[in-house]
Design brief:
The complex is a heterodimer of chains A (503) and B (172).
Chain A (H helix, E strand, L loop, with lengths): L1 H13 L1 H19 L5 H13 L3 H26 L8 H12 L3 H34 L4 H12 L2 H4 L4 H16 L1 E2 L6 E2 L13 H17 L20 H23 L5 H15 L2 H4 L7 H17 L1 H7 L5 H12 L6 H6 L1 H33 L3 H20 L2 H19 L5 H23 L6 H4 L1 H34 L1
Antiparallel strand pairs in A: 1-2
Chain B lengths: L1 H23 L16 H27 L1 H16 L6 H35 L5 H22 L10 H9 L1
Chain lengths: 503, 172
Amino acid sequence: MFDYLITGILNIVTDPMNITMLLIAIVIGYIGGAIPGVSGTMLVVIMLPVTYALEPTAAFILLTGIYAITAFSGAISAILLRTPGTPEAVVTTFDGYPMAQQGNPGRALGIAIFCSVTGGVIGTLCLITITPALANVALSFSSPEYFALTVLGLTVVASLSGKELAKGLIGVLFGLMISVIGMDPLTGTLRYTFDATVLTSGIDLIPVIIGLFALSEFLKKTKDSHVVQETISNVKTKIFEIEIFKKIKGTMARSSIIGVFIGILPGVGATTASMLSYSEAVRWAKDEEKASYGKGNPKGIAASETSNNAAAMGTLVPLLSLGIPGGATAAVLLGAFILHGMQPGPMLFKTEPELMYTIFAGLLLANIAMLVVSKPFIKLFQRIVNVPYHVLGPLVVVFCVIGTYTVRNNYFDILIMILFGIIGYILEKYKFPLATIILGVVLGPLTESEFRRSIQMANGDFSIFFTRPISLILIIISVLMLFYPMINDYIKKRKLQKINISA
Amino acid sequence: MSNVMKDYIFYSIVILFALFFLVMTPQIKITNGTFIIGPRHWPYILLTLMLILAIFGIVKSYILAKKSKSIESKDHEDKIEPERTFFKLSIPMISLVLVILYVLLLNAIGFIISTLLFLYGISLLLGQKKQLYSIIFAVLTTVVFIGLFSVLLSIPLPRGLGIFRQLSLLFY
């Protein structure tokens, strides 16, 4: 394994194309993540078309690199503007902004950088060790196990849809229905094509993702008028201060474990991880210290930033080992793999070990690079954050159009993209969890064909899913996952009450 | 009240969607009889689940609405206000129209001219005050996009028809 990792690092460092892609990923990740309203998911979506022309290795270094960097870069605007640049950084505003206001923006940023790098590196190391092991186990899986796995993946909705479980499940079913349209992969029968030849090959994943995530976001943003944001200036970033480190090291250790663990659970992403880790930090604090949370406690920043970066890496474990996306961005990455003619999952470790370890190496390097790159970037931050939307918005649209068109050089796909942009815009107004639709579309073909193959294997006996131990366990976990938010809600409510009482 | 209404509308649309596809499902031809689970079964399962969930959703929001009627009636008056802007042409609506126009033009007059026009129009709409800046922005961006995608990455962009095709061939 270590030889592979070293080969991976060498692959990046010695290949000018790969190292360029890593650098581009860092730049884009910083700029995009710092601008509120451009999330990591959207950036990965927008950069998809650029990767068509690239070698898979370079393409995935770029995409996963952006993903790794945005896990941190949202914290900059969270601290300096109180507006999280990415959803993952919401919790960082709790203590980061107060600390910056009290005249220590440099310290707040320094803690965020140091903790992000630590969390990210620990997360990546866990990713590197856990993923191949899990993939190895998954090699013995057959159709029923795979079906159970996809079901487990689909129960991700439970966490994506919050309280509206029914709506989330409808979203997944809608996504699954979209993937049904076109030619049936097993029999070649045409389904719901309404005699239109353009529908024969089905509705492609990429236009749906771009429409739902990028175009609908653009439409939503158009009505916000541009206000020049006043940022705290003259920031001197202090990345490492020994007395601060002594204070936060316990929090960092705890938060990185929480982050990785939460990240690996399919569907519970970085945002949840940082929330949970923050409330754990408060819970573990001594009584006299509890009041300082939310008022610039360094441990608060540490808890949030360590865990969201660790979780971002953890989310990649189920994707790369089992082929099950742990969240929206992972679903987009899964789409990217399919685009490059690969199906992520246990087989990929056998067929493309070098690619996998190069991706790992890229993530490791991207995380470490934050230490060096963050300081100069923060100096530029003020200018970047004030890029007006009448410049940014139109660019997003043109990227959406080109991105969609280049997948299959199909004009019809652009129309599909627009349609899903409108659907996304309307559903967003209803607070509908859009990622559930993506999940359905991404996992649809796999779920259906493995389901049918299993039944075929068992000669029509539906109990096959429950008689095989691994598939039974997976289905039990799925059911638990589905009802986990309800249980979790209850626990959270109790915790919030506790925090309120103590605060 | 308006929230409950929204839920009713949402679930009704879901039910209509499911029913429409349920009606369409028998039209799927079964060409290969050897499969125990044919191409029709999977959609049937999905659509049935969808119907059940939608009906569950309606019942649930009905019960919730009954429970919290007293609270809802207070909110009632404030919630009507934001609904009205829905009928005016808001900026997102105009943006959407521009995007649709752009995409329709794309096929006819090609990437270069339609992108120039779109970028010029949308940047003015979204708050660019100076005409000149809009023009510079549109030209610059189009040049960069063509340079990056068509020339550097050799990704074919839509060329349009007739003379527009000839025009695009000059550039990429």
